[in-house]
Amino acid sequence: AQSVSQHNHHVILSEAASLELGCNYSYGGTVNLFWYVQYPGQHLQLLLKYFSGDPLVKGIKGFEAEFIKSKFSFNLRKPSVQWSDTAEYFCAVSKTGANNLFFGTGTRLTVIP
Amino acid sequence: NAGVMQNPRHLVRRRGQEARLRCSPMKGHSHVYWYRQLPEEGLKFMVYLQKENIIDESGMPKERFSAEFPKEGPSILRIQQVVRGDSAAYFCASSRLDRGLGSNQPQHFGDGTRLSIL
After folding, report:
1. Sign of the CA dihedral B35, B38, B21, B85?
2. Chain B residues 40-59 with CB within 8 Å of chain A
3. CB pair distance less than 8 Å for B104 and A30
4. pLDDT in the model for residue A59
5. Which residues of chain A have a CB within 8 Å of the CB of B104?
6. Helix (H) or strand (E) run with residue A91 in it
7. What is the DSSP letter of B73?
8. Do B97 and A99 form a contact (C-beta atoms < 8 A)?
9. What is the pLDDT of residue B109?
10. Residue A98 has what pLDDT?
């Protein structure tokens, strides 16, 4: 069965620190990969997505993610976090051509001013 | 607000009652998805619908749960005879029509309905 693992449940950083959130998935076929963010009291918003092509994907708000096929990973990065990045981050995977998303359990990021 | 609209935001039911959750997709979107988020867990796919059709219900519990997306009106997720374990946040997402195999359209999410069972 397909699954998505986010190993960091809660990450606490100071402003300007660099961020990397891990995401690994288990599925041998072709996948589409997503990172969603949920700010407090808001709905999930798409940060970035990978369908094909350049494995380094740039998203909104300075976030990027790198797809490493050999490691089944799609880690999210940001060089310098801000207090406003405090949110919950979800990695999601879908099989290419399928429509349902498989989500990780989420990583809560707290940025201290 | 042209986003995905879910109502109600909060719904309280007693055990044995019925819960109806509504979702209006974004304008121009013809695909609707329902997900459930239990406390301390990630979102779990339940069902995928297009107008008047259930495309994939592999994540739906076999009993008490049903979903529809009629030709007119919102998509409805219906839970009959609710139990405590149904307490969760239920999220709806919508997307445009896929243009071809391998071209998944990003899903846009609503604010969710938080269902509490007394």
Report:
1. positive
2. 40-45, 48, 55-56, 58-59
3. no
4. 93
5. 32, 51, 94, 96-99
6. strand A87-95
7. S
8. no
9. 93
10. 74
How far is A49 from chain B, CA to nearest CA, in Å?
Answer: 8
Q: For residues A63 and A48, is the Cβ–Cβ distance under 8 A?
A: yes
Residues of B in contact with A49 (CB under 8 A): 106
Q: B16: distance to nearest CA of chain A, Å?
A: 29
Q: How many residues does chain A have?
A: 113
Tell me the average confidence (pLDDT) per consecutive run of 10 residues in chain B, 118 residues long: 87 97 93 90 91 92 95 96 96 81 74 95
How many helices and strands, by DSSP H and E, does chain A display?
Answer: 0, 12
Sign of CA dihedral A71, A72, A78, A84: negative
Say if the Cβ atoms of B101 and A52 lie within 8 Å. no
Residues of chain A with pLDDT under 50: none
- Torsion region of B73: left, alpha or beta (phi above 0 gives left; psi -120 to 50 gives alpha): left
What amino acid is encoded at A33 in this protein? L
Nearest CA to A39 out of A60, A57, A22, A24 is that of A60
Looking at residue A89, its pLDDT comes to 97
